[in-house]
Each structure stands twice: as structure tokens, then as C-alpha cells.
Specification:
With 222 residues, this protein is an alpha/beta fold. The strands form two sheets. The chain has a six-stranded mixed sheet, sandwiched between helices. Strands 2-8 form a two-stranded parallel ribbon. β5, α7 and β6 form a beta-alpha-beta unit. The longest helix has 14 residues.
Length: 222
């Protein structure tokens, strides 16, 4: 499936799309409603110079822009935890290898075997994460969470949105609210599409299909 066949040209002009593990095909064919809502979110996103000059983390207004669009559609942030139940089955007789009794002779529970995995937005079996300006190691956490959800059968596909390299053209010409070069805030070791793609190329997402999206400079209203 070609990206240009299922993504409007207006979005292609503003974002970069990278398809891993047939994520796009899964979204289009299995989750058309969620895919439509994600495209609507991307279409409505507008960033100002004031938005990108504010400090990252909880102070940034950019994550709230996604909240305002996706929450009315029923997307929610979630966290999962789970225990692992282990059962040990004895062999039926001392002579018959490979044949085991139906009842375990011992069970044990490993509490907190899965814990602390957060996803910014989840609807049905589509996971969505936004990383605007965090340390790039945050991508490792996101991909681990998505592959864990996938391995547990809780999600079928993940979407991660982050900055494209093209935004640097704006950052290099602006100063922050303290008069310092804005590019210092958006360094090479922060979350941007280049830091995500090499992790996906090395399959840190495991078996979870991922659609990676880079926010382009065209999203910023100057």
C-alpha cells in the first residue's frame, strides 16, 4: 500500500509518514474509524511560535492540543499492570517422556511482571503516543510499552508522532522567551523522527506494527 493512496496531499505536505510492519494497512483496513480520527487530529493541529517557545514537558501546550481533539472521540491515556501465573506440570510416568498430567503440581504468581507501561492514547486496539521534546531515550520506553501491549493482545498497531527534522529551520531562526537561541532547546538528543526511525529499523518495537509520523515546519503558523 502506497502512503499517498490513503493519506490526503494536504497531510503529506505537513507531515512525514513511515510505515513499519504494515501498520498503515492495519489502520486502513481494520480500524477505519480510528484512522479517520487520527487524520482529523493531524488536520486540525496548528502550532504557533509561542507554542514552540514554551518549555517542554508538562508546561508545553502541544500535548493538550492532541487531548482536545482526541478525547471527544473516546481516546484515553491508560496504564497496564499484570501478574504472571506460572504452572508446573509433572510427567505422567517416569517412563513416558513428553506426556504430562493435566493438573499442575505447583503454581506461583510473579506479581508486577508487567507494570508501569503507559500509552498517551488508546482506542480499541490502536495505541498512539506523542513525543514533542523529551530525551530521546523516551522512545525506548514507548516502544517497549507498545510491544508489551502487542504481545499481550491488547493492541494491534501503534502510532508515534514526533518532530521532523524540517522544524529545525524554524528553531534556528528564533529565540526562546528568555532571548536564548531556540535551537538549544531542541537538541540532537531530544525526541525527533531521526531518533525514532533508527530504533524502528533495529526492530525495537518487536512485532508491533508502528506508523511513525513527523510533524513538519508547515504545521507552524508564523
Amino acid at each position: 500500500m502506497r502512503i499517498e493512496d490513503v493519506v490526503d496531499q494536504t497531510l503529506l505536505n505537513k507531515y512525514e509518514f513511515y510505515n513499519y510492519g504494515h501498520a498503515l494497512e492495519i489502520l486502513v483496513d481494520a480500524y477505519p474509524e480510528e484512522w479517520k480520527e487520527l487524520k482529523e487530529c493531524l488536520s486540525q493541529l496548528k502550532l504557533s511560535l509561542a507554542d514552540i517557545k514554551i518549555s517542554g514537558g508538562n508546561e508545553s501546550p502541544i500535548p493538550k492540543k492532541f487531548d482536545d481533539i482526541l478525547y471527544p472521540f473516546g481516546w484515553r491515556e491508560i496504564r497496564i499492570s499484570g501478574d504472571l501465573l506460572v504452572k508446573k506440570y509433572p510427567r505422567q510416568t517416569a517412563q513416558r517422556r513428553g506426556k504430562f498430567k493435566k493438573e499442575p503440581f505447583e503454581t506461583m504468581t510473579l506479581e508486577g511482571y508487567i507494570d508501569g507501561h503507559n500509552i498517551d492514547f488508546l482506542k480499541n486496539k490502536v495505541a498512539f503516543d506523542l513525543e514533542w521534546n523529551s530525551k530521546d531515550q523516551t522512545f525506548d520506553r514507548d516502544l517497549l510499552a507498545m510491544r508489551t501491549y502487542f504481545d499481550c493482545g491488547l493492541v494491534d498497531v501503534g502510532v508515534i508522532v514526533t518532530r521532523s527534522e524540517g522544524l529545525n529551520e524554524i528553531f534556528k531562526t528564533q529565540t526562546d522567551n528568555n532571548g536564548k537561541p531556540l535551537m538549544r532547546k531542541y537538541g540532537a538528543s531530544t525526541t525527533w523522527i531521526g531518533k525514532l526511525l533508527y530504533r524502528l529499523d533495529s526492530r525495537r518495537n518487536g512485532g508491533c506494527p508502528i506508523l511513525a509520523i513527523g510533524i513538519g515546519k508547515e504545521c507552524v503558523e508564523i
